[in-house]
Amino acid sequence: RNLLDRDTFSKSDPICVLYTQAIGNKEWREFGRTEVIDNTLNPDFVRKFIMDYFFEERENLRFDFYDVDSKSPNLSKHDFLGQMFCTLGEIVGSQGSRLEKSIVGIPGKKCGTVIVTAEELGCCRDSVLMQFCANKLDKKDFFGKSDPFLVFHRSNEDGSFTICHKTEVVKNTLNPVWQAFKISVRALCNGDYDRTIKVEVYDWDRDGSHDFIGEFTTSYRELSRGQSQFNVYEVINPKKKGKKKKYVNSGTVTLLSFLIETEVSFLDYIKGGTQINFTVAIDFTASNGNPSQPTSLHYMNPYQLNAYGMALRAVGEIIQDYDSDKMFPALGFGARLPPDGRVSHEFALNGNPQNPYCHGIDGVMEAYYRSLKSVQLYGPTNFAPVINHVARYAASVKDGSQYFVLLIITDGVISDMAQTKESIVNASKFPMSIIIVGVGPAEFDAMEELDGDVVRISSRGRFAERDIVQFVPFRDYIDRSGNHVLSMARLAKDVLAEIPEQFLSYMRVRGIKPSPAPPPYTPPIHVLQTQI
């Protein structure tokens, strides 16, 4: 909207060029270009860019605008109209996944605005619930009837087949009814409705040498007609067909039911307005070492971030795109506070217990450094108070409009293991996830136990309703070459990768559906002005 006018006799002829940035060397690479739209300062570009989206990665984008003056593909031959920088997460996390931002880059001039909308491609999200039965299958076993099962294959681009589903075995019958099964459309036919699906029928044998009864082919489109005369298939054994003149078939297989279920995705909730609230809790216990010493994990090095700062920035910069007000509560635990030296296990880093919110990740970093100067590192290391602090908020919004993520950064020597387990088991009922980053050289066995990936966490005989804790040791990500950018991107990827699934597991258990997205943006109709 309102692009600069660079042409003397007519309006600009704009094009938009999208660049993405490599994580390691920060080099911008051209991703694609829109079409050129002639003679307008308010273009609505049609060509779309299709990109991969990962919640746990930060994808930097740059949109450059040019006024095209000739047929040359070389951009330096055209007039630059300005640019806009954002992240893919920022677009997706905006209200209705629609971001409007100013175009910048030409000093002293207003360059207009750009509106970017993102939409998740829907074709791959459906799954299907199907049930089959068979009649009069060939008898393969010497003593009894056959023990039939079905094997489904999808066809690949090169004509080969890949197995995508096996039914259970139904014992001793030539007229089996198999249980209904659910499979994603992607697995069944790669989202291509007309691609061949091959189904083989076998007679199960204990020794693994299952006997081939016969096969038939179909497609998603055929199956989607549901139970009908079209979905009764003759099972053919090509060998028998070749040998026997009178061979008709080896039985029939019938589709009994076909139900399409659209899986809702993490982005459906984000688009519907669900906010992710991010809270940080930092370990201020004495085991971290004196902050004025270079050996301390809290050492305030003027030239580079310490481990706490690096972990906080890596995770926070990605999550902040999904939080519209960018205000984050930042807490500390295990320190003695001024003026009276009382020990606290949940204090506000900005010194304001009534309002512990900091603006953006930069605000959190600033409050962290301020606290280091004013509090005294002490102990013990108690996690339960900060977990309960966030759980209190999470317990009050159960309608799916908000989800809470607590990042605990710690040197890992935990004092209140029993209480922490109890807190986590209670918190697993609420819309929240906990990320623990362990810094320093300690043994993190206790943290691994809290993670609950191997054994689901329990307290006093009660198990956590779902897995909500993700732990990583910071030392696994320190790059020997000193390139922290790549290593921090890997850290963020590993701690955040489980969040969308944890988020969905809460919504599913509670039966919460995404809110409808706000209506899509429709550009105003330009009224043609006529002279009277």
From TrEMBL:
Domain of life per record: Eukaryota
State the similarity comment: Belongs to the copine family.
Quick check: keyword Oxidoreductase in the entry?
Answer: no
| One of the GO BP terms on file | cellular response to calcium ion
Q: Name one GO cellular component term.
A: plasma membrane
Entry's InterPro entries?
A: C2_dom, C2_domain_sf, C2B_Copine, Copine, Copine_C, VWF_A, vWFA_dom_sf
Where's the VWFA domain? 277-478
In the UniProt record, does the keyword Iron-sulfur occur?
no
The entry's keywords: Calcium, Metal-binding, Repeat
Residue ranges occupied by any C2 domain in the UniProt entry: 1-101, 110-233
Gene Ontology molecular function: any one: metal ion binding
According to UniProt, the name of this protein is CPNE8 protein
Family matches, as Pfam families: C2, Copine
Originating species: Pycnonotus jocosus (Red-whiskered bulbul)
